[in-house]
Design a protein that fits this description.
The protein is built from three helices and three strands. By secondary structure, it is of the alpha+beta class. Strand 2 and strand 3 form a beta hairpin. The protein is 34% helix and 20% strand.
């Protein structure tokens, strides 16, 4: 089956204007995302495949994007 990453039901992506950063709000935790991480998570809408998400970024970072998605999925923040 092809994985189409989406935020888990318990995760929320929000922009914090005070910090000027995107936050991933998960149970009992707030994760401040850097610009690249926020861009990746922002594409996890449940419609795009991993390959389609990777295609949105410059060549040469494919492995980094996939590794990040795998780590976030392991944390339970993506389904």
């Amino acid at each position: 089956m092809i994985w189409r990453p989406a935020l888990s039901r318990s995760a929320i992506l929000r922009h914090d204007p005070v910090r000027g950063a995107d936050l991933l709000i998960v149970p009992e935790r707030i994760v401040v995302l850097n610009e690249e991480a926020a861009a990746i998570v922002g594409l996890c809408d449940g419609r795009r495949t991993v390959d389609e998400i990777v295609a949105e970024f410059p060549e040469g970072v494919e492995a980094d994007v996939v590794d990040f998605l795998d780590r976030v999925r392991t944390e339970g923040w993506l389904r």
